[in-house]
Amino acid sequence: MSAPAGDPVIIHTDGGCRPNPGPGGWGAVLRQRHHVREMFGGEPAMTSNNRMELMAPIMALEALTRPVIVHLHTDSTYVRNGITKWVLGWERNGWLTAAKQPVKNVDLWQRLRVACERHQVEWFWVKGHSGIADNELADQLATRGLQQALEAAVPS
């Protein structure tokens, strides 16, 4: 695969549940130059903060229509450390942790690995709720995703 050219796509992601575990939502803000795309979704059934934190970058990366350079910002050390430090070892060990236990959320880690393969992704950790505009917006979008999931779950 040739290296992607052009300005990077800047992505901020967030996810969460209320309560944890419980219903959840995820949100993502994608920016490239003057183009902005906001995305969100949710899960009305039992899920976890970590699953929603993983869904946000998965959905953002899968939405990109061509290989690009991506600067992906997350406030989840679980996601950043998982994809940059742990996932290759898990894969090598048959999706078992160093303690020989099954990796949690393996389905999403595998999906995130595939989503990253198309792009040149650089991962950044940002402190949540620290005034970074697109991180705050991703949090608001995750809340919208949760609200939408809860509304969809209520029988009419």
TrEMBL record:
GO molecular function, one term: RNA-DNA hybrid ribonuclease activity
A GO CC term attached to the entry: cytoplasm
Cofactor: binding details: Binds 1 Mg(2+) ion per subunit. May bind a second metal ion at a regulatory site, or after substrate binding.
E.C. number: 3.1.26.4
Pfam families per UniProt: RNase_H
SUPFAM superfamilies linked to this entry: Ribonuclease H-like (SSF53098)
Localization of this protein: Cytoplasm
Keywords: Cytoplasm, Endonuclease, Hydrolase, Magnesium, Metal-binding, Nuclease
Top class in the EC scheme: hydrolase
Record bears the keyword Metal-binding: yes
Known catalytic reactions: Endonucleolytic cleavage to 5'-phosphomonoester
InterPro entries hit by this protein: RNase_H, RNaseH-like_sf, RNaseH_domain, RNaseH_sf, RNaseHI
GO biological process, one term: DNA replication, removal of RNA primer
Binding annotation for Mg(2+) 1: 14, 53, 75
PANTHER family hit by this protein: RIBONUCLEASE H1
Purpose of the protein: Endonuclease that specifically degrades the RNA of RNA-DNA hybrids.
Quaternary structure (record): Monomer.
Protein's name in the database: Ribonuclease H
Species annotation: Mycolicibacterium duvalii
